[in-house]
Amino acid sequence: MSAAATAMRALQLVGSFVLTALETTGRLVLFAGAAISHCFRPPFYWRSFGRQLIDIGYYSLPVVGLTAIFTGMVLALQSYTGFARFSAESAIATVVVVSITRELGPVLAGLMVAGRIGAAMAAEIGTMRVTEQLDALTTLATNPMKYLVAPRLVAGVLMLPLLVLIADVIGVFGGYLVAVYKLGFNPATYLQNTFDALKMEDVVSGLVKAGAFGFIITLMGCYNGYTSRGGAQGVGAATTNAVVSASILILSFDYILTELFFAR
Amino acid sequence: MKDTASPKICIRGLCKAFGSKRVLDGLDLDVGTGESLVVIGGSGTGKSVLLKCVLGLLRADAGSITVDGEEVLGATVDRREAINRKFGMLFQGSALFDSLTVWENVAFGLLAGKGMERKRARQAALDKLAQVGLGPDVAMLSPSELSGGMQKRVALARAIAADPEIIFFDEPTTGLDPIMADVINNLIIQTTREVGASALSITHDMSSARKIAHRIAMLYQGKIIWAGPVGEIDNSQDDRVDQFIHGRAEGPIHMAVRA
Fold it and tell me: With contact defined as beta carbons under 8 Å apart, do B209 and B217 qualify?
């Protein structure tokens, strides 16, 4: 094969990739627009919404709580190792509370919920697609976007901030446990340092991020499930895509939102 | 009972293609009020596509479908939902919602579609289950706890729960043993008569077609090649119809077989 033909082939592959990416993005944006519009138009399926609140919020608490407490504990331990070299151990409380509320709380909770909820949503809706349950909804005069997607989207946006708020408290408590019971810090001083370092904008920025991550997780779960094709293999692929795409988007949007909140 | 003079469903020049493959190619078909029409045809001839176009699950490329004189192709989403309230549908694989109990499945159209209160909807669901020969003991079970025949009955109860004007049956007896298939055929006849609905069924099970149909139409290469009363199908004078109803491998219809 000549060099020109090889270059042409490479160009063709790049072009095909770009076109596919643009097409998928367009479909996703249209899907998101339709889903958002259904969140504000009746009828509202309160029972389905309540079930999603429990699924996303209540049942994700253990995994998010465990992630948060160990993250706080490790953060305190690692910070101590580093800061002890400069006799700056008193900064540990500040590092823990700022890191948890600004970044680690929302990002780690988002990633854990993406693995738990995003995958489950893609698998459930994907299975409904391949077993004609979505078609059955339509024939029963029920819009699947309104019945399945809208409640999940709203529940995700509401529950993630709540989970992150709890994760923030648990994560800071994890840091406190290690600092006080392992590293020998004075409890009152550690707590005082924590409250001194805590700023409202740190917590609020984390909660706004959490709301955005909740939207991303539920959107990617629903979109991949809704558009899945081809039986069990298609549902498996949809589940994988939901988790991978949500995780990448969470990390990308984390940077974008951090720029918006804190870039000077 | 049946009235073919003013068709409940009127299909004209319906076309649907997937890529270069034309599945429906100018199909014309009428379903009269109170009439049970069965569309027969080989696998992959477009029977399910025809049904999905009428139900709005697939968008037809061209043609016209009217329900009670109202054009449904190109109808708005809200209008489409209103039209779908006239329909009941029995899916080939039952398509029961596995996250809901049996009674919630049957009452789904009443709860989500019509906003009926749960207590009344539950009673209505129990009545419909009784109509298809299922007792209240199955009402709280999950669909996965039922046999294939029972799932079909639950799906039939769901299809008739909202007393639809038109019921669609997609391969209603596929995958069932002959006795259960006959039970389902009897239930289809009984329930459609009780509701007074028109019925459009698709099947390649000839014994089922002969039993539930007033009229039979045969779909081949995207068109209806023969349609007439069920009693006349044995004298259709069409070799393709004869080959199909007698299940012969030899004849004018050649199935694509890969070695």
Answer: no
The reply to whether residue A135 touches residue B91, judged by beta carbons under 8 angstroms, is yes
Amino acid at B97: F
Q: Is the minimum CB–CB distance between B166 and chain A shorter than 8 Å?
A: no
B113 CB neighbours in chain A (<8 A) are 140-142
Say whether residue B55 is in contact with chain A using an 8 A CB cutoff.
yes
Choose among B84, B92, B93: nearest Cβ to A139: B84
Looking at the DSSP assignment, which residues form a beta bridge with residue B31?
A: B9
Packing angle between helix A187-197 and helix A92-99, nearest 10 degrees? 50
DSSP per position, A53-108: HIIIIITTHHHHHHHHHHHHHHHHHHHHHHHGGGT-GGGHHHHHHHHIIIIIHHHH
| Closest-CA residue to A76 (of A171, A200, A193, A215) | A171
Assess whether the previous peptide bond of B143 is cis (omega < 30° from 0). no
**pLDDT, tens digit, 9 for 90 and up, residues A23-62:** 999 999 999 999 999 999 988 999 999 999 999 999 999 9
The ipTM of this complex is: 0.88
Residue spans of alpha helices (H) in chain A: 3-39, 46-53, 61-83, 92-99, 105-113, 119-130, 133-139, 144, 150-177, 187-197, 200-226, 231-262
Domain boundaries, chain A: 44-262
Determine whether the interchain pair A133/B108 forms a contact, defined as Cβ–Cβ distance below 8 Å: no
Q: Does A263 touch chain B (CB under 8 A)?
A: no
From chain A, the residues in CB contact with B89 under 8 A are: 136, 139
The percent of residues in chain B predicted with pLDDT above 90, rounded, is 62
Q: Which DSSP helix (H) or strand (E) runs through B166?
A: strand B166-170
Interface A–B counts its CB contacts (< 8 A) at 57
Residue A206 phi/psi, 5-degree rounding, is: -65, -40
- Determine contact, residues B118/A143, Cβ cutoff 8 Å: no
CATH of region B1-86+214-259, choose from 3.10.310.50, 3.40.50.12280, 3.90.1150.10, 3.40.50.300:
3.40.50.300
Q: In this predicted structure, what is the pLDDT of residue B1?
A: 46
**Is pLDDT at B257 greater than 80 in this prediction?**
no
Strand B223-229 and strand B215-220: pairing?
antiparallel
Q: Where are the domains of chain B?
A: 1-86+214-259
A99-149 pLDDT, tens digit per residue, is: 999 999 999 999 999 999 999 999 999 999 999 999 999 999 899 999 999
Distance from CA of A239 to the nearest CA of B (A): 18
